[in-house]
Backbone:
């Protein structure tokens, strides 16, 4: 490996503890400490996916035993009422706030992150996400929906955006030999956050519940503090590579053979290229198809299979009694949990595979395989095969997660690594867009079909074919992606000037024993991985327990 000399350490320089120069790695640093630092942050902000666990308790925050409903109340009135319980649909707007603010904040502050480094961005993310939950707890306590939206939704959403992109550029620079795997390890944490957070929230709600409180504001406050501590640990564990560092013995792949550029495109120019917008649509269409299914996974399984889930093959959904509907709802919750597990696993699997088959070919897999599986889903439902139906959607959700984890490496291949974090931040507006398109397509088509009198077990057939068309459009966009025109490449002088400015007097890179070679773990890295791995393993176990009910 290459390294910097001991004279090149930055520990003795001036500046604040959050400054980028204070995070430049010194001799002997192990690059395998960076992914668990990223996981500390992503496993916390990933709870955004699991917020629905709060909706039912909050829907009876005033009524306690049952909702104190005000049927004619408008959404605007709900924002300020202190006498009526909130509707679940109104609280569901939190998801829109989360993912719109995630994309917007990542786009706005991505360039700032590249300048100040991941530690400062991670600290701000911790303050926003943890602090947002505390403000949200106050909003629940005083029963003001607008305060909960402002705290957890808006301020928390900014924390989501900054926390999500904080490790991307750093990981790609530490692992130029395994770009996909490195980003996959971190971004799988975002998918896994709900797997830990949702059962933890349930435990805390039951612990804090009293005859006068449903236990939600106390849970918000407790999780806000827990998440703040974990995210601060991750932020302070971040280290950035010395300028010019690369793994010893590693040779960059041929640009002609791999579509991996040796050049860099400036942040101000990336969005002017067709490649940026083609990748934007590739991500948007892949995510739109998947996110619509995630939102309707539970009702979809219940309405399609109905009595088949409880050994009554000839009983439709409307013919089930209340107890049977409660039973199949529990089974459907296991289905949602299983999809979450494949969402996480797919982030690591597909992103790692992309290091070997290339990013473009990986997206070809997403679109071609996705089209086949979506097209076959109605047939699997018609023949009544739970195994085939569930398996198809598990693979689909693995590719949904894989799309998120593979796209940072795709951007690094196209635009170089100098501004990849900021470019990725701007690209995440595709996620914000998909967060609107996907659920709207699935939900509104379902309502239209219901009003037209379509049987519940056939409600989603048209939807599947429309999602196939969206994936076909994504396939075309992926096909059109070619290497960036050289006119957009930064000159060597421009790159050197930028790197010199960020290093601020850092000593020249020298060969030596920096880290421990291309791979492997020392005791410190093993302990750090265990620190994030134990909670993740607990979340996987709880998910498998729930998913076992399907079969």
Residues:
């Amino acid at each position: 490996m290459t390294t910097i000399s001991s004279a090149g350490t930055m520990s003795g320089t001036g500046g604040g503890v959050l400054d980028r120069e204070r995070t430049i790695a010194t001799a002997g640093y192990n690059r395998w400490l960076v992914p668990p630092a990223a996981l500390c942050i992503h496993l916390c902000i990933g709870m955004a996916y699991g917020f629905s666990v709060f909706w039912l308790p909050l829907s009876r925050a005033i009524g306690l035993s049952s909702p104190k409903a005000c049927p004619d109340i408008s959404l605007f009135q709900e924002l300020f009422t202190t006498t009526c319980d909130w509707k679940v649909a109104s609280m569901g707007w939190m998801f829109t706030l989360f993912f719109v603010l995630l994309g917007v904040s990542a786009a706005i502050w991505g360039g700032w992150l590249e300048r100040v480094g991941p530690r400062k961005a991670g600290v701000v993310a911790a303050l926003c996400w943890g602090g947002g939950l505390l403000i949200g707890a106050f909003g629940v306590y005083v029963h003001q929906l607008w305060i909960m939206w402002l705290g957890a939704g808006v301020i928390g959403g900014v924390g989501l955006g900054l926390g999500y992109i904080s490790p991307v550029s750093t990981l790609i620079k530490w692992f130029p030999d395994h770009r996909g795997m490195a980003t996959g390890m971190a971004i799988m944490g975002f998918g896994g956050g709900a797997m830990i957070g949702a059962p933890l929230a349930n435990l805390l709600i039951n612990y804090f519940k009293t005859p006068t409180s449903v236990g939600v504001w106390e849970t918000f406050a407790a999780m806000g503090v827990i998440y703040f501590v974990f995210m601060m640990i991750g932020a302070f564990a971040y280290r950035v590579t010395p300028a010019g560092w690369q793994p010893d013995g590693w040779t960059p792949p041929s640009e002609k053979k791999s579509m991996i550029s040796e050049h860099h495109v400036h942040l101000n120019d990336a969005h002017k290229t067709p490649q940026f917008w083609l990748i934007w649509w590739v991500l948007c269409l892949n995510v739109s198809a998947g996110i619509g299914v995630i939102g309707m996974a539970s009702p979809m399984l219940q309405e399609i299979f109905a009595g088949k889930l409880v050994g009554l093959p000839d009983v439709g959904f409307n013919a089930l009694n209340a107890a049977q509907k409660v039973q199949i709802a529990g089974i459907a919750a296991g289905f949602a949990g299983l999809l979450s597990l494949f969402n996480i696993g797919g982030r690591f699997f597909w992103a790692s595979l992309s290091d070997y088959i290339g990013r473009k070919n990986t997206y070809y897999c997403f679109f071609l395989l996705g089209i086949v599986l979506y097209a076959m889903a109605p047939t699997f439902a018609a023949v009544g095969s739970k195994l085939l139906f569930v398996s198809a959607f598990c693979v689909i959700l693995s590719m949904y997660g894989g799309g998120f984890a593979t796209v940072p490496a795709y951007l690094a291949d196209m635009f170089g690594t100098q501004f990849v974090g900021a470019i990725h931040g701007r690209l995440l507006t595709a996620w914000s867009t998909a967060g609107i398109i996907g659920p709207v397509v699935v939900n509104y088509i379902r309502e239209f079909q219901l009003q037209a009198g379509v049987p519940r077990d056939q409600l989603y057939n048209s939807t599947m074919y429309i999602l196939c068309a969206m994936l076909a459009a994504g396939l075309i966009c992926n096909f059109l992606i070619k290497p960036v025109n050289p006119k957009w490449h930064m000159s060597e002088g421009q790159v050197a000037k930028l790197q010199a400015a960020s290093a601020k007097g850092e000593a020249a890179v020298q060969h030596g024993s920096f880290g421990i070679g291309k791979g492997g773990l020392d005791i410190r890295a093993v302990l750090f991985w265990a620190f994030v791995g134990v909670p993740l393993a607990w979340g996987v176990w709880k998910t498998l327990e729930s998913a076992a009910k399907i079969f």
User: Anything to note?
Assistant: The chain is about 70% helix and 0% strand. The domain at 26-245+520-551 is CATH 1.20.1250.20 (Growth Hormone; Chain: A;). Residues 1-14, 505-518 have pLDDT under 50 and may be disordered. The beta strands are 2-4, 509-511.
